[in-house]
């Protein structure tokens, strides 16, 4: 993506971008990836994250295509970054209480804004790009206008939010989550926690003016940044939970295929899902936050799901419809009963708002005699058991995983 950034929510657009970037995924990426040259020049990074988020392109596809072009040694850095995503997804699966706590904190902090004028002023200045810190203000506006920020800018932004502006990290994460096209419950929440010193306990990330100056190519050198970053404290203990794989029972009786934002390439389930009677796509525009989600971010998510339904209809030869609703339980029960569906099949739903919705609907579906079958991706099944503590465990297993999953040419 060399000039104007734009993302079209289709698998074809994702593959085209991957192939255009591929030659630069080796040494070029390792040497250049930390530079944020600004929204007009993103040629040093892949810009694939919005597509990966909705699974319009899979991590497996990215890795396979990359390793068809480069040796693992040559593309090591890029490959590791792709596995960072898998690590965060797996880690949150093992620590779902972090997500629940984050959601409840955001609700509480947003309610408090009106009663705490100082907090509200600080929050409004930061989220509208009026703090007087030129770099930070630029990124706040860049995020709102484009739906994207470079990884280094995300780190600097989060660090300044927490340690210089002294705002709650959860409100910053919520601001990102409402605006990013790639907004992901795991990567976003856990990256903010990592900057705050909550993910790797006690280890914070401090944004320094000299580092910003170097890696923005001299575009910014902000003054007055915090010089120390004491870790944020929390009382909760988030213990490790075994992952509930919900192993597939064989679907029995007539099947309905459920498509959500968690997998917008349902055609990949062909072979595992046979002859669905009907296909339902379901989403809401309000699940990310009590505050408004940006129109840009909602439009990308909506396009991703609409396109997925069209392709699923073609691939499975069954009628597809879309429900945009706050009441998933009623929509699911009515759809299943109206089509005499006994088993709803969907891709495994990772921790996040979609899983929360389905967890609410699950008992009602059960009482109505409707089973819900979630099919996990072999890639996640292979990666997630290695995402229980730090990234190192998964990183050390990358060569094995690549081999086991058949991602590199022999
Ligand atoms: C505070 C903060 C919030 C973030 N929020 C999100 C988010 O909501 N969604 C999201 O996808 N990423 C998030 N990231 C991670 C990272 O910034 C983006 O994935 C990356 O900038 C996307 O750009 P790219 O596709 O060009 O990445 P590239 O550098 O080209 O990397 C290729 C792919 O690897 C994955 N990846 C790269 N870096 C990371 C990383 N540090 N963590 C996890 N996955 C990574 C992405 O899927 C990315 O598309 C966040 C990082 C920070 C510091």
In short:
The chain is of the alpha/beta class. The protein has helices at residues 11-21, 27-32, 49-53, 59-69, 76-94, 96-113, 117-128, 134-146, 151-164, 169-179, 185-196, 209-215, 295-316, 328-338, 353-367, 378-383, 391-396, 398-404; strands spanning 255-259, 278-283, 320-324, 343-347, 371-375. The protein has three domains: 11-93 and 383-404, Serine Threonine Protein Phosphatase 5, Tetratricopeptide repeat, CATH 1.25.40; 99-215, Orthogonal Bundle (DNA Cyclobutane Dipyrimidine Photolyase, subunit A, domain 3), CATH 1.10.579.10; 255-375, Rossmann fold.
List the helices and strands and how they pair.
Blueprint: H1 11-21, H2 27-32, H3 49-53, H4 59-69, H5 76-94, H6 96-113, H7 117-128, H8 134-146, H9 151-164, H10 169-179, H11 185-196, H12 209-215, E1 255-259, E2 278-283, H13 295-316, E3 320-324, H14 328-338, E4 343-347, H15 353-367, E5 371-375, H16 378-383, H17 391-396, H18 398-404
Parallel strand pairs: 1-2, 1-4, 2-3, 4-5
